[in-house]
Structures are given as C-alpha cells and as structure tokens.
Design goal:
Helix content of chain A: 40-55%
Largest sheet of chain A: 5 strands, antiparallel
Order of helices and strands of chain A: EEEEHHEHEEEHHEHHHEHHH
CATH class of the largest domain in chain A: Alpha Beta
CATH topology of the largest domain in chain A: Gyrase A, domain 2
Number of strands of chain A: 10
Strand order of the largest sheet of chain A: 2-3-5-9-6
Strand content of chain A: 15-25%
CATH architecture of the largest domain in chain A: 2-Layer Sandwich
Number of helices of chain A: 11
Oligomer: homotetramer
Shape of chain A: flat
Structural class of chain A: alpha+beta
C-alpha cells in the first residue's frame, strides 16, 4: 500500500500527564493513513465537504481555504468525518463533566466489576482556589499557603480514611457496587472516549474556557495539544474564528452601540486640540451584568 | 377547548419515594391533553405510526393492535412521540448510571454553583448485600445482621466526617468546585430528566433487569409505575414482547437444540410405559457460560 | 386541578399554510399546562436551569433575566426541556433537508405502504428564481414573466406525466416501493416532527437564514410564528443574541481591525475642519471572500 | 512504528458495485493500524470492554469469548469503538432511508451547489417486482417479461424527459435548487457516510432483512461484505445471536406455548405405536397476524 503513509504521531500513543495522577492518551484517530501528497488529516474534512459541490468547487478553492470557509460559516458537518479515541485517567467529577457531552462513545472503569485503585486527586499547594465573589460557579485566587497546607492534609486524611473503610467493606464481603458509595468524588477513574472533531471542538470551546473548572481545563488543553498536529489547518481556523478563542460575538445592543459610535465620528473633528474624548457608549439594556459583559468586550475592541 | 381533556395524573405531579431520601416525580408528559374519546396517551403513538401508511391501514387495525404490532416488530420510532419529564433525587452513582443513557435531556444540581445538601444514601439494615461469587458485577444475599450494623455505622460516620470537612473547607473560603471533591459517591443529588418513551423503555429494560444494581432498579421501577397509567397499552405490549420481560431471545444454537428435540418426538412413542425420558439437549458450544444460559432458558421453556 | 391552566393555543392545533399545498401545524407542546401565575411555557426553562444552582440564585434573578442570560452565554441545555410536535406537508426535497437535523423524532408518509397523493409543489409565477452568479448554492432575482410561465407549464406537464406513469405502474401491479421511483422530487409528503426547543432554534437559525433555500425559509418562518407565542421570552432573547438574527460574530481579524480603528481615534482630532476621513480598515487576510464578509459586517456596524 | 501493522484491506479502498450504477466503497475504518499479534480490528472492542472490569477479567476470558458474550447480552457500547467511513452512490429514495439512521455522520451531493449527473436507477428486466398481497409494504414475484419490458421503457423515457427539462431549466438560468424539483426519485446521488459498528449492525439488521426494500438490501449486504473481513469475530457472533440473523425472539405467549408442549411430553409415551401426534399448540392471542408469526417461528423450531 505504497501510496499512503501514516499520520505522524510523534510516538505510537502520545500521552500527556495531567494533575497529579491523571493523563490523556491519544489511542487512535481516523484517518490514520493519509495519501503521501497530503500533510495532515485535514484532507478528510475538505474531501467530504466537496461531496456537496462535487465538480463545482474542486478547482476553485484549495483545501485550506475551504476548511477556513467551513469554520467561519459554522458548516461543521464535514468535521464529523474526523474521529479521535482517547484513554484518560480523570477524577470522578471531571468524568461526570465529560459524560455530559452526549455525542461521544465511552467505556468507563466500573466500580461494580472492579476494585477501584487507591488514587485520589490531591491539589497542589499552589492550587487551592477560593470561591469567586462575583461568579457563583467560579473560583479565584488561592488560599494562603498555611491554609492550603491544612486543606491538603485534610483531603489526604479523608481519602485515606475512606479507602480504608472501602477495603474493610470488601474484605467483609460487601458487594463492590455498594462499598464504592463511601469513596470520595476526587477518586481517579479510567475511561475510553471516542468523539468526532466537531463535537470535540465544542467540548474544548466549553472546557478550555476560563469559566470552566480549572481541573477540566487541564484535560481539555491536553486534548487540544494532542489533536493539533493531526488537524493543524482546522485548529488554526478554529483559533481565528471560534468566539471562545480569537473571535467575539456581539449582541444586537452591542452592534447598535458600535454603530452609534461610528456614526458619531465626524463630530470628533470638531474636538479642540488637546482635549480627550471618550467615545465609548453604554448599551441600552437594564441588566448591569449584560452592561459589564459589554465593557469587557469593548476593552478587547480598543476602548479603555 | 371542550374536545380535549387532561391526561389523568392521579395528582398534579405524582411522586414515589425511593431508598431513604430519594424520589422520582413525574413533572410532565406529552401529550398532556387528549381527545375525550381517547383513554390514554397511547393514541399519540398510533397516530404517528399511521402517517407512514396514511389511508391504507386506517380502517384495518385498531390502535391497540397497531401498538402491539409495532412493539412486536421493534418498529419503535413512533414511541418517540411520547415524552416524559421527571424530577429525581438520586445518589451520585445512580445519577452517573442515568447520564450514560445519552438520548435524554438533563439538568443536574451543580456542586460548582451550590452548596450540596447533607443527604447521603444509607442502606437499610436488611439491604447490605454481599459480592456475588458467580457474577463479577453482581451482589447476592445479605451480610449477617451484626456485620450489617457495623457497615451502616461506618458509612454514617464517614459521611458525617466528609461533610464536616466539606463545610470547613467552604468556611475557609475554598471554592465549592474544589471542596466537593471530598464528598462521597453516595451523596444525593437532584436532577431534571426528560426522555422519550422509546429511550425510556430501553432504560427500564436495562435498569429494572435483575442484573442491574438494586438501587437503580428501585428508581427504574418507580418510573415504570408512574408511566404505566399514562401509556397502558404500550406497557402491556412491552411486558408481553420485550425480551427483558415476558419474551425471550434464542441464539442460533438454542433454536437448533429445540429443533433437535422436536425432530426427536416421534421416537418418544416407543418409550416403554413408566420409563422417563429427559428430552433436554445441550447446545453445541464450547462456552460453559453460554451452556448455563441455555439451561436457564430451557427451564423457563418447561425442561427440568 | 385548579392551579394549572392550558397553554393558550389560539386554536386547538394552529396551522399555517405554506407554498401552494404545504402547511405547518403545531400539534402539541410540552409543557401544555402551566401554573396560573405563569404567562408562558418559558418557565419550564428557568425552572430546569435553577436545578443547577438550587438555593443560590432563586431570589437573585427573575425568570426572564435568567433566560436572557442562558441565551447570551449559550447555556442551552435547559432549552431542551421544551418540546414541540408538528405535522407538516412539505415537498420531498424540503423533507430531506429537515431530516438532516438528526436530533429530532419523525414519522413520514411512506411510499412503500401508501399510494402517494397527486400533489406537487408548483412555484408561483413571481417565484421562479435565477441561479446566483456569486453564490454557488443560492438564487437571486426572478426569471422574466414569459420565461417563468414556460417553466411553470413545463413543471406542471412533467408532474402530470410522471403521476400518470406512476398510476399506470400501480395498476399493472408494480410494487409501490418501485413505482415511486418515477415521482419527481417536488412531490409533497406528510411528516410528524417532534423536536426540542434547543434543536429547533438551531434549525431556524440555519433555515430562516437568507442563505437557505427560499422554500425551506417559508416553512421555518411558519414554525417560528407558531412557537413565538408559547415561549415569547426565549424568542425575544434569541432575536437579540443569536448571530443569525440581531447578533453578529467577529473573527480574530475583525476584532483586530476594529481595535486599530479605535486606537486611531485620537488622530481624528487633528483632521482639518470640513475634511472627511474614512476610518474603515481592511482585515489582514488573503481571502477576498473573507474581506467581503468583513465589509458587509462593517456596513452593519456603521461604516459606509 | 514496527509493532503495528495495517488492517488488511484487500485493496486500498475496496468497492462493490450495486444495482446498475450504484456502489459502496469502504474509504476508511478505525482502527486502521493493529498490533502485529492481533488478527483483526475486533481487538478494539474487547480492549474498550475491559476498561469496565480492568484487572478482573483480563486473564479469565479471551477476546473472542468476550466479544461473543457482549453480543449475546446486548452490551453493545464497546462496539461503538469501531468506526467505518463509506462512499456510496445510491438512488435518492435509498439515500432517504439511510439518512433515517440518525446516529451517523454524512455529507451528500447537493442539488443546490451542483448540477446533478444524469444517472437513474433503471431496474433490470428480471427485477420488476409486484405489490405483495399480504404485506402492505412489501413486494413479491415479478411482473411477466413483456410487462416488465414496458415498465422499464416507461421509466427510461420519463427519466430522459425529466433530465431534458432539468437541463433546459438550467440553461434558461433557473436556480439549481429549483430546477432539481423535476428530477425523479430514482436519480442517483453520492454520499459520504461514517458510522460506528454498533449503529451499523442495527442498520444491517433492519436493511438486510427480507422485509426491507430489495434495493436497500443490495447496499446493506454490500456493506456487510466489506466490514466482515475487518471485524470477523464480531460478525460471527452477530450471525449467531442477532434475532435478525440466526437468533429468534419469542413472545410471552410463545414461551407459554412451548412450555405447554414440553409439559405434555410424558403423555406422548402412551400414544399407540404407529399413530402420529401433532404436538404443536396455538398461542393464546386474538390476533391472527400474531398467530401466523408464531407458526412461522414454530416451523423453524421443528414443527410442521
């Protein structure tokens, strides 16, 4: 089969360690073999997209431009032609977040079949985050070092205690499915996870976002690192266009606010030399939260 | 709107308590209003099924017969026309099992947003099950009463200890998303769950089965009780035809074994009076597990 | 059941005629009964969303604000708690476009079971559109009246001829499943379609967009009209925030271009009175198509 | 990468011609590279299944036995770890049947973007089937040769006529999206189709079944031929256990009927020599259709 070559995994099943005991390992992808005049697996996307237009576009647009067009216009069905399979070791509550992404296939270590291994996620000393004051679901800053030390030793002690009780239960003959009830939520578990590129990018959009729990960001970012060399053009386009990355979404009110500013530009010519003008305009909404969101976007757009 | 009536929920949002603190509550269903010449929501299934045949079958088959036909032949897409919405309080590890059923919609109490309530599943004294010797994933029989007592008090103590640590963490300012890591897996959580009848019956097939963990059977059976008065014809048909209920699936080898027995019947006439014959035949497979499965089915079919 | 009232369907199953013989009919929705202190079905969204935060947010945010927040931040899982069921009569090729939206339940009139009715979509005289020169998949302007007349009479003739052949085949005893092969793609078919609000809004985003085929826009807009009185707050929020409606998405390059303009504002003070300045800036990309897309957005943002 | 070998596609992208112009081509599968001590892609199933039991079962059951166990007990989630990608040319109405299987990814030749090629499915002379008298959705026997000849020439003439009108429309400038409305339903289209093994076997269960339209059986059988060498153990198990293949499903009434017969066996010893006894028993249902279904199964089980 001399006219195909393998996707260049740097190593057979590249693996990135995450947190203290976790990891993400790329077990497989589709396509795994590519034509030797192709650079990456990206071709499988443009190839499928061209089905829609058959003869028409074939000569007009090259693969990279086509993929960028698809990404910019949210024509994402051809992205489903790429598939990835991972093995991951993650804390239970990260696993639960992953399972919520329903368009994926998975097999998870079962506490009914197996004795769970004694591995818990113990945060590092500089990673005990405090509850955010402004964001009900978020965290911010760290506890001071002394407190963090106490928290970590409490976590360790509780995990150890829980696992001892768990083992005692098993020894007493309690069914595994019942005994596991005492194991804490930061226990590590192992899962196989197979997902197509469209749904994986949606996952990364949400889980590499700074609003996501930091622990899941670690895994999401590891996944991103693993797939980037396999579909580089797609990832580049996604970095440029996704509103979770380089792009930005404006609401009707924000469009209106910018329009008001631009419409007002001619008036700026009359401003006396040396005087400063703040061109920024509020959006016309009652919600202070929405107003604050606009301010953040306005800063990225150049207003100070 | 005089020609429709409400689906007769016995009460507004009927609720069944499960385990010590859990429950299943039927919040809503679709259809909720039915024509007043209809007895149940079953009509929404036959109505949709008839779309396929429009004029043709309308007079031939009545609704009940049509539904039974659909169930017998696994033509289940019309079952998707019925939708149910539940509120449930379940232990975390039951929640994880429920999430695995991907064709459903759900919202779950989030340990990132909320302080989790102090409610844990503590098994009853007569429900501490032992690990099954024959079934790696199952349980069987109970621990003796004294041991069960010890197990329960260990569970209670550990849960209490965990929750104290959790509250201490929160008071110290640790982010909720991190603090929850010490909470054990038998913590109760609350979820909204919306699912169509086709996928719900698949759930019940698997989760009311005697191989399922007993705790999830409790919830699955509660769900079944709640939907049965709403789609009685469908549930009747399912009880008669599902291979997880009254039906049975035979493998190629089991079909062959029965055929061999039936073919052999004429020879039975020659059996001397008073002599007994065991007509049972093994199936021709190497696997002893598969052989044992056949024996169990054969017993249900009348062989002893 | 005095504390609930029905969702106020203006009539029992409101119906909007589409094209010449088509229609969309709203058969049912969930919730269908709402509490009498509620105005609309929107409450089912906020109710489910609150599960995530339980106690925390209950008093802070009212329902409308919460729904707007969810829509703005693309937290769309609670939208899945609303379900709609439609009956539609559509041309076959519109049906195919509808089926492509996979997260929905459907039953379609089957040409294997039933004799298809003789109903074809015949475009109106002022709706014979020409192939777009700039958009390979689009149409623009109309054929002149004389040509349109010819086209219509050709369509009519061909449909008539096809249906005669079809009927002849059936009379000769040919199986319906084979005979249907001669029927043209503008034949009407009938379908039941059940879909949740999240997936329905995605459908409307794509199919009410001006890039969509005009015939499917007609059906999509009809659907929108039917659901708007049922979930008015959600639709309002969607009109304000969806990038397919009042909102807008900016790429990394467009963010950069606006930033360059804003950064340049102080220089405007030095512009001699009476002189005009064009503040518009190109984006830094090679693709002329992408440049053109930016120009269109820039116009909406106030640049001329 | 010396410790992996390629999946042995006999040729790079094996292709089976179907009907007159159609085909199924296997473009890719996952896994595509297998370890050199593995014989087939089946290993990816057992590997994922073992995640659930980790240490426990590893030594107990070999891969083939494990896969057979999974298939027998309908534990099909590990089958999702295998993925296939096909290119297919199919008549439009077969395409519609394929799209109905929602858990798959696809891209289809678009009549909006492209001028459709002039290729129609014209049945062969010995394949013009008659409408079944007993099965409203089925066909049986063939028209006589003369009639078949007429039917075929009518189909050809109509297709030719339709395509001429279509081309005339395009030449007159009518938008492709409108012009396609006159094309008949037996027009060929081209699609990419990516689906996992679990969902593909469900497709084959339904579409290779003798109740399916013969034309879709042709494609389904071609697909089966293409995947069999890649996952031979799984296909073997499926042939033995699927109730659409070697297996059989019994209803509650059929289980009861067999039990009645077996219970009655001792009475057979009293039958006078030379006398024949019909041991067969009806099932206790009103439906004659259900009774007939039992008779068919009883025949397979040895009763005449």
């Amino acid at each position: 089969m001399k006219d195909v070559i393998e996707i260049k995994f740097e190593e057979l099943e590249p693996k990135i360690n995450c947190l203290d005991h976790g990891f993400v390992q790329l077990l497989d992808c589709m396509p795994r073999l590519i034509r030797d005049n192709e650079d990456s697996a990206d071709y499988a996307i443009s190839e499928a997209a061209r089905t829609s237009y058959e003869r028409e576009l074939k000569t007009v647009t090259d693969d990279k431009t086509l993929i960028r067009y698809l990404m910019r216009h949210n024509h994402t069905s051809p992205l489903e032609m790429i598939e990835f399979k991972f093995k991951m070791k993650v804390p239970m509550y990260i696993c639960t977040q992953i399972i919520r992404h329903r368009t994926a296939s998975l097999n998870i270590l079962s506490g009914r079949y197996s004795v769970m291994p004694e591995e818990f996620y113990i945060p590092a000393i500089d990673d005990i985050r405090m509850q955010s004051k402004t964001n009900t679901q978020g965290s911010e800053n760290n506890l001071d070092e002394h407190m963090s030390d106490c928290v970590i030793s409490d976590i360790k002690e509780l995990c150890k205690k829980s696992f001892t009780v768990y083992k005692d239960f098993l020894e007493a003959g309690v069914a595994r499915e019942m005994a596991r009830g005492v194991l804490p939520y930061n226990l590590y578990t192992v899962m196989y996870w197979k997902i197509d590129l469209k749904n994986l990018l949606h996952f990364i959009n949400l889980r590499s976002d700074h609003h996501a729990q930091k622990e899941v960001q670690v895994f999401s970012n590891a996944i991103l690192s693993l797939i980037k060399p396999i579909v580089p053009w797609t990832i580049d386009a996604w970095e440029d266009y996704s509103v979770y990355r380089g792009g930005m979404v404006l609401t009707r009110y924000e469009v209106e606010a910018i329009k008001n500013i631009i419409d007002n530009v001619p008036n700026l010519y009359d401003v006396p030399l040396g005087e400063e003008v703040d061109t920024f305009k509020d959006i016309e909404v009652d919600s202070t939260l929405e107003q604050r969101e606009w301010v953040k976007k306005a800063e990225r757009l150049g207003w100070v």
